[in-house]
Amino acid sequence: MITGELKSQVDRIWEAFWTGGISNPLTVIEQFTYLLFLRRLDDLQALEEKKASLAGIPMQRSFYPAAQQGLRWSQFRNLDPEAMYRLFTQPQPAHGGLTVFEHMKQIGAQGGVFAEHMKGATFMIPTPRLLDQVVQMISRISMDDRDTKGDLYEYLLSKIASAGTNGQFRTPRHIIRLMVALVQPTVHDTLCDPACGTAGFLVEAGEYFRHQEPSPFLDPAFREHFSSRMFSGIEFDPGMIRIAAMNLQLHGIETPALSSADALSEASAALRDRYSLILANPPFKGSLDFDAVEKSLLQTVHTKKTELLFIALILRLLRTGGRAAVIVPDGVLFGSSSAHRSLRETLVERHRLQAVISMPSGVFKPYAGVSTAILLFTKTGTGGTGDVWFYDMQSDGYSLDDKRNELATSDLGDIRARWARVQAGDAEELARPRTAQSFCVPKAEIAANGYDLSLNRYKQIEHTEQHWPAPQEILAEIRALDAQRAEILLDLEKLLG
User: Fold this and answer.
1) CA dist., res. 398 & res. 405, Å (int)
2) Which of 90, 143, 193, 496 has minimal Cβ neighbours within 10 Å of its Cβ?
3) Alpha-carbon torsion angle 321, 449, 343, 282, nearest 10
């Protein structure tokens, strides 16, 4: 849990960037991330030096050869602002002709997944004063354990206060946590988010294992799987992929497979049938030219709409038996186009659609007011849909306006509990009436309704008879009030006379 002191430190750094001339939230996070990485490289170098010294052996890996020692965080943070800024912006003959930033970009694979995606990174801190301010403040942050580092970065990401480009916006952490709890990742899963953004779904899946008892990390085979093969993400924005890489590394996921590519293009064709679990909140808006879309996706659903193409992509990425929890806009549930209907029919008839959780429109505020739902399904290729569970989420625990203030009530705990009972085949849960907040609908009824998956198509509203006074009674009450008002006016006139 992030402490008040850590929040205050991040807030002060954020304010320094803002007053120093960097007001774009994503740019602030990028520049903050680069500096965090420089500090991390120095810490790793110090650790390698300590291990080599204790063991009396040469260093196994070095991020700073002798000629670049002056480019280390522990060295430049003690310089005056002007000298520090020159190290970042002017090639240094004494350090192999490199700047601090250029050296960081050349670290490569040995620096971890973040360093692998440094191509195109740009140093944008405009003044020596701002650089010195931020470096000194980051130096004062205690980053001795994984929890602190992870909490720091999560809080930093939460400060994104406006939607990104290309339909990007941050999925609320509590919604991610709900989806992870619903799918219950296993130690054998291979997870992917094909539109990973800042990697929130992958991070939360990793945290899911850290809270299990007994800890799966006691098993060396799981530790190796967790660090090298379990997590994958695809993201076409190079800046976002760097943020995702740092987010994962600060949460202890050192070597995830992150791909900087357009997931809907030919670049993802080689990933067919690779993953056992997908968690995603794909882009909702926009349409693509058919030429830009991988051909096999168009065979599943012939459309230009990204929200439909991503569902087709997820089905292709999953291996048989693989599960998915995906956020979709409501239009996917009831859209009348042939592509919408075809995709829903594919989910119901060719695979196993298990649940549709309808969310209120304020869940993604202040970024967007679109109504959304969570789809839970399993790829089978042979059908298997039985009763589909619908849940009408009324509250996610926060107000549904732009302020998103925390509330005392939330449906999230009820969703988890009822889904567990559905999974266990609880007869009472499966037989709940259509007037309840959650209920089951047979596959045959869904098919008969054109594969419409909107909750309102199946929910029954209870109508209660209301008795109102007769019009003559209402008129009499109005006359009585008028008479009373007239008397009061007369009394006031007498008092004033």
Assistant:
1) 5
2) 496
3) -90
User: Could you tell me the two tokens for 432?
Assistant: 């709940």
Q: Distance between CA atoms of 96 and 207, rounded to whole angstroms?
A: 41
Helix (H), strand (E) at residue 377:
strand 372-378
Instruction: Yes or no: say if 10 and 152 are a contact pair by the CB < 8 Å rule.
Output: yes
Report the first-to-last Cα separation within the chain, whole angstroms.
Answer: 70
Max Cα separation, the chain? Answer: 106
pLDDT tens string 287-346: 666 666 777 787 778 788 888 999 999 999 999 999 999 999 999 999 999 999 999 999
- Return the closest-CA partner of residue 352 out of 321, 323, 388, 384: 384
Q: 305-314 burial, b for 16+ CB within 10 Å, e for fewer? A: bbbbbbbbbb
Q: How far apart are CA 213 and CA 205, in angstroms?
A: 15
H-helix or E-strand containing 248? helix 238-250
Tell me the whole-structure pTM to 2 decimals. Answer: 0.86
Tokens 């339909």 map to which residue?
167
pLDDT of residue 402: 83
Q: What percent of the chain has pLDDT over 70?
A: 96
**Average of pLDDT values for 256-262?**
90
Other CB atoms within 10 Å distance of the CB of residue 447: 15
For residue 401, the one-letter residue type is D
Strand partners, 439: 390
Reduced to 3 states, what is the DSSP secondary structure of residue 467?
coil
Quick check: 264 and 309 in contact, CB under 8 A?
yes
